[in-house]
Structure formats: C-alpha cells, structure tokens
Write a structure and sequence with these properties.
- The protein has 69 residues and is an alpha+beta fold.
- Helices cover 32% and strands 26% of the residues.
- The protein has helices spanning 5-14, 23-30, 38-41, and strands at residues 18-22, 50-56, 61-66.
- Strands 1-3-2 form a 3-stranded antiparallel sheet.
- The chain is globular, with a radius of gyration of 11 Å.
C-alpha cells in the first residue's frame, strides 16, 4: 500500500479528463505532506488510468490527465 493510494483513488473517482489540484489539496486528500518522493510514487497512478501531466513548483499545483488507452 502506497502513502498516496487515497489520492490516486480520488483522482480516479473525479472522472474528468484533465484537472489540477494544489499541493494543499493533495496533502489534505492524501493525509501526508507532498515531498520529493511524490516524483517516485506518481508512476503508481497509471494503474488508475491517469498520469501526472505537470508539476508546478511556482504555483504549487499538480495537473492530472486521463491516460490515453
């Protein structure tokens, strides 16, 4: 079990093709602080049919998009 499983389930449950969450929203959903390990864990999102499209350190956001089949 990953520390980001709750986040991945939320992303999958959202259902939109593309959307953006702030770091604060991600931390609230996941229940853990977002850190550099997020870069490693983000590959797990593919199981849910999504991928991280862009991480903005300046805006403190992460853009998600549905993976192409």
């Amino acid at each position: 079990m990953s520390k980001y499983d709750t986040l991945w389930e939320c992303v999958f449950g959202d259902g939109r093709d593309r959307f953006t969450l702030t770091f604060e929203e991600i931390e609230r959903i996941a229940g853990v602080s977002i850190d550099h390990s997020f870069l490693t864990y983000k590959v797990e999102l593919a199981v849910y049919g999504y991928q991280v499209e862009k991480i903005s350190m300046k805006a403190k956001t992460v853009a998600f998009r549905r993976a192409e089949q």
